[in-house]
Amino acid sequence: MADERGQPGAVITGAAGDLGGALAESFLADGFSVYGADIAEIAPQNGLTPVRLDVTDRTAVFALAERAAAETALAVWINGAGIVATGRISEAAPEVWDRVIAVNLTGSFHGCAAALTVMAAAGRGGRIVNIGSLSGQLGGLGVHPAYGASKAGVHVLTKSYALEGGKHGVACNAVAPGVLEGSMAGEFRPDQLENIARASPMRRLGRMDEAVEAVRFLADPVRASYLNGVILPVNGGAYMPG
To answer: What DSSP state is assigned to residue 233?
Structure first.
């Protein structure tokens, strides 16, 4: 890739998923050079550099950060890689716990660390946005307990990196969506989805574009210039933290 360090760059992990893919399209439309990172294959397109990445591999995550900072004016890093496992709490398997924590929490830790390192070194500031979850605030039935635990960890991780990143002009925030329409909703039975929708005062699931707008807001250095360490609920009012 040619040297484009004057062009804003965005790294999105989990870019093969519904939310990650929608975010990539949104940043591309605004002229960003986007690095779409995922363990799954992503088709290249103009402005999008696909990167095969396992977020549990810290060395690989740091290598991506260094590459993006060398090739663009890296401005945004989104830790969107995540997995969910459904099932009865009483049947939760420890090996599933290990995998979910490794991807959702440890992967976000590697991403935050790598992004802050290169953004602080560049001296231009930046925005890190983590993808948390309503489950990280309330827990939940029907999903492996590792999912809520991992996302609660992501929320606290966000605050830790907000405290450190603020010294360098790097804000770290998170969104905490409820279940969104798309592939994640497909993990649940119809009756479970009906119950989830009923738990929201708006009586529906969230849309992907609504989550994208929330992430884009937190990633914007002008509109969200004084927001740091925020866990933004995107849940239709199902949970309203005080």
So the answer is: E
**Pairwise CA distance, residues 3 & 64, whole Å:** 15
Q: Check: CB of residue 183 under 8 Å from CB of residue 18.
A: yes
Q: Is the pTM of this model over 0.90?
A: yes
Active site residues: 147
Alpha helices in the chain (DSSP H): 18-29, 58-71, 94-100, 107-122, 135-138, 145-165, 190-198, 208-218
Query: CA 70: distance to chain centroid?
Result: 22
Asked whether residue 241 is assigned to any structural domain, the reply reads: no
Place of tokens 């390192």: 117
Whether residue 239 lies inside any domain: the answer is no
DSSP symbol at 229? S
Q: Which domain holds residue 144?
A: 4-234
CA 26 to CA 20: how far, in whole Å?
A: 10
Spatial contact of 11 and 74, defined as CB atoms under 8 Å apart: yes
pLDDT score recorded for residue 192: 87
Domain count, the chain: 1
Domain with residue 229: its CATH number is 3.40.50.720
46 is a domain residue: yes
**Residue 236 per-residue DSSP state:** T
Per-residue pLDDT tens over the stretch 92-150: 999 999 999 999 999 999 999 999 999 999 999 999 999 999 999 999 878 999 999 99
The contacts found for 23-31 with CB under 8 angstroms, 24 or more apart, are 23/78, 23/80, 23/212, 23/215, 23/216, 24/48, 26/212, 26/216, 27/76, 27/216, 31/7
